Every structure is written in structure tokens, then in C-alpha cells.
């Protein structure tokens, strides 16, 4: 596959990201992020996101602009990558200085652009413990696992503009129902109560932490949002099951 080949799906432009963080976080669900490595498009459907605002204690940007955090103060659509839990974590700047959306989890995606060879490369990028093969359902289940599988690194992409020939997010026509709940890993006293985490309801078991797990109650622990346009898949579907 030619690394400069132009995929046919519509990719998201900077205008998509130049909107409120929560809106961007919701509408990224169901899109497919693709990274071209050695001629292979490594792809994952985005299934979990979190929104962050500069005025929150939980946001990195609340600590101010710095060389490592400058991407959050750049125009909307710039990748902000940082080191998290021993790996890389992917975010995008959105409307307003210091506001961003974190890509928390994905699901490996195979279609006419991303082949089985792409999937094999993703599995090789992120083997399980002791060198075993990681289960597909867990391959991109977490922000650092997603970056590892896709080959995304701080060194290569932090504060660099996306290049649709190498890094892009495609709208494949999916309009999922969405679960809204509180974010993960926020220490007490740092706005941990804010419900700025969004999960693709159809992929809830495969995200970082299933918001529909036993003991969780709708209306108390989470809210189910019906998509305002279309519920279900309307475009390309993955061959993975």
C-alpha cells in the first residue's frame, strides 16, 4: 500500500475540532483514527473520549503553557501527546486556549483501507505479557495501549499538525448512542465529579472501564444519550467481530 495514497472516506478537518470540548468528544465516537506506518494504515474506531477545560484542576493546561503542553494552546486540531502510565497518550486541541479532548480507547478496525496486514502490525506493536498475542478486544483498550498499537509517539506527533497522508480521523458514518459519565483517574479534589467522559454504548465492554458494569445505575452513575441524528452504523463496517 502506498503510504501517500489518499483514502476515500471523508476525514475530519480543523473546523471539526474548533468547537466545544464536550461536543467534539461526543462526535469523535464512531470515527476511525488512522496512522500510516511503513505503508500500512493502522486503524481503530474511537470508542471512548474525555473532555478537558483549562479552568479545571484536572486539566494539564491549568498548570499553564509550557513547551510540553504548548499543543493545547495551539489552533484546534493539533495533537497533544504526553507520557502516561509508561506509554504515550493522545489528545487534540479544541476550541479555546487550553481545552482538549483525550482519546481514551479504541477498537481495532479492518476495512478497505486497513488490511489484515495492518491488524497484524498493530498486534506486533503491542504484544501481551511475556510476548503473547493480545486479545483484539483489549488491543486498544486504554489511552497508552491505543497509541502503542497505532505507533503514535510523543516524539513524532506532539504539537505537530495532522497530515491526512499519515495521520487522520475518518467519518465512516457511524452515529452511536453515547454513555456520559465521570472521567477516570482524577484524584479527589481535582474536579473528579464532572461528567466529561463519553463512551460508545455499543463498545462499552471494550473501553478502559465499562460504565455498564454490574452495580452501575442509569441516571445516577451514567446517562445514556440518544444520538441526535442517526442511531447505528450507516457507513463502512469493520470485518472484525
TrEMBL record:
Keyword annotations from UniProtKB, A to Z: DNA damage, DNA repair, Hydrolase
Keyword field contains Cell division: no
GO MF term set: alkylbase DNA N-glycosylase activity; DNA binding
EC number in record: 3.2.2.-
Domain of life according to the entry: Bacteria
InterPro entries, sorted: Formyl_transferase-like_C_sf (IPR011034), MPG (IPR003180), MPG_sf (IPR036995)
Catalytic class of the enzyme: hydrolase
Pfam families linked to this entry: Pur_DNA_glyco
GO biological process, one term: base-excision repair
Family: Belongs to the DNA glycosylase MPG family.
Protein name: Putative 3-methyladenine DNA glycosylase
Organism encoding this protein: Pseudomonas saudiphocaensis
